[in-house]
Amino acid sequence: xxxxxxxxxxxxxxxxxxxxxxxxxxxxxxxxxxxxxxxxxxxxxxxxxxxxxxxxxxxxxxxxxxxxxxxxxxxxxxxxxxxxxxxxxxxxxxxxxxxxxxxxxxxxxxxxxxxxxxxxxxxxxxxxxxxxxxxxxxxxxxxxxxxxxxxxxxxxxxxxxxxxxxxxxxxxxxxxxxxxxxxxxxxxxxxxxxxxxxxxxxxxxxxx
Length: 208
Ligand SMILES: C[S@@+](CC[C@H](N)C(=O)[O-])C[C@H]1O[C@@H](n2cnc3c(N)ncnc32)[C@H](O)[C@@H]1O
What we know:
This protein is an alpha/beta fold. It has one domain (about 5-205): 3-Layer(aba) Sandwich (Rossmann fold), CATH 3.40.50.150. The protein is built from 7 helices and 7 strands, in the order αααβαβαββαβαββ. Strands 3-2-1-4-5-7-6 form a 7-stranded mixed β-sheet, with helices on both faces. The chain is globular, with a radius of gyration of 16 Å. It starts with 6 loop residues before the first helix and ends with a strand. S-adenosylmethionine binds next to helix 4 and strand 2. Keywords: Methyltransferase, Transferase. InterPro entries: Methyltransf_25, SAM-dependent_MTases_sf. One of its GO terms (biological process) is methylation.
């Protein structure tokens, strides 16, 4: 049976890298804060922490986290997105790979934080989400954090309908041995309430 493509590839045909980078550059030029994710993660980290940016895209967050003093590895399956990351930060570690097979990359595990920002989880290939969450959880050190940001309605997703629920996502996290620590409605830490269209979640792997 042919492998199912991720929803991002269905939307973009693997050609989105330059447009995606241009969109964020325009937002930054217009004075918007485009570093909310990195700033949020930094509040959770000690200086010099190890971060895995899972579904790093053009590397915009991983590059910022490196500027903030962390050691950041980026993994993405879209070569057009990764081409931008490699051009912008050639000395950083970038891997072209499927998060559903993260273990096959042979990365040194025990990351302090694994980030899946920008709707990575809703944009995975249908049916692979629990596998990916398990792979991300396995990359964490005991006590490490999985930080995710995802839209929960059409207004916050590049999809006509949300492909998952927050309860379903929490269930995959629980199955992967993670516990929910914090949840917000934005990267600026606005409180999350039922019915919010976006969720920033912090799950943790139990300390050893
Ligand atoms: C909307 S982009 C977000 C990129 C980046 N996290 C950001 O916030 O700018 C979603 C990314 O998820 C990646 N992605 C989706 N499924 C993936 C998979 N199975 N393995 C690796 N990356 C994946 C896509 O290639 C795409 O770059």
